Amino acid sequence: MPTDLAPVERVRGGRRRGVAAAVSAGIVVVVAVAVALLGVPRPPSFPSLADDPNPAYVGTVAYVRDDGPDGWCVTVVDASGAPRRDLRCGSGPPPEWIDWTADGMVEVATAATAGGEPQVDVVDPVSGGVVRQTTSGWSKSGSPDDVGPMSSDGAVAEIRRDGERRSVEVREPDGTTRTVLSVEAPTSYDLVDVRWGPDGRWLLVVDGDGRLIVVPRQDGAPAVLADDLFAGWMLRVAVTGAQVANV
Predict the structure, then answer these.
(1) CA 194 from chain center: how many Å?
(2) Are 67 and 89 in contact (CB under 8 A)?
């Protein structure tokens, strides 16, 4: 008598698939448990200033943000976390650099042509309109507020790396040293730049994930100001002490 084995094979196949799925799920669970038990570090997370602005942070940050495939925008945002404004957006090569001028405008240097110098558009940070244009190299004659790793009172900020530990230390003018930011993260994670806020009360830390992190000099918790800095070997970000209206 002929026997139909197909239903049996389907059952067996279903059981094999079920066993395979269960094994796969078990592996995922084991890996998750191992990560939890072994303490494998994950990239650090911070609260967002956009969700909870802090008016104690005085100043304005200009930066070039990532706007999707081949896209970019020059953006200004109040250090407190107030809503940001895009001054101009484009596609292709991003600006060579940006900076603040002494009169509170934003210098935007377009990508230079072969053998040529970049064109520098001086842009109003409120209207986004071009105030004037020049053709020169990186002037750095602009805002004296963007003081880099040394504050106006002589304190120095420095990034430290020790295994999976990443930290920012501040050496005060009296010689004492304090850690203002410390995270444990995978070795692939890094802090890549630090500069002072204009009043010396906060620092802007840039990490390898494209985040701009505001870190208080004294009490308080670090918070993310932006998380979409345009990737590249040059950090296209600048700080000024000016409070730009309606940013």
Answers:
(1) 11
(2) yes
Sheet holding 223-226, edge to edge: 191-196, 202-207, 212-216, 223-226
C-alpha 107: how far from chain center: 20
C-beta of residue 61 within 8 angstroms of C-beta of residue 211: no
User: Cβ contacts of residue 103 below 8 Å, gap of 6+?
Assistant: none
| 180-182-187-193 Cα dihedral, nearest 10 degrees | -10
What token pair was written down for 146? 């963007």
What the block records as the tokens of 215 is 């870190």
Identity of residue 154: G
CB under 8 Å, gap of 24 or more: what pairs does 123-132 form? Answer: 123/74, 123/87, 123/88, 125/60, 125/62, 125/76, 125/85, 125/87, 125/244, 125/247, 126/85, 126/244, 126/245, 126/246, 126/247, 128/85, 128/86, 128/87, 128/88, 131/105
Tokens of 240: 């000024």
Residue 85's closest CA among 98, 72, 95, 75?
Answer: 75
User: Region 186-204: what's the mean pLDDT?
Assistant: 91
Query: What is the strand order of the sheet 177-184 is part of?
Result: 156-162, 165-171, 177-184
pLDDT digits (tens, 9 = 90+) for 62-90: 999 999 888 999 999 999 998 899 999 99
Amino acid symbol at 70: D
| Structure-token pair, residue 67 | 């706007």
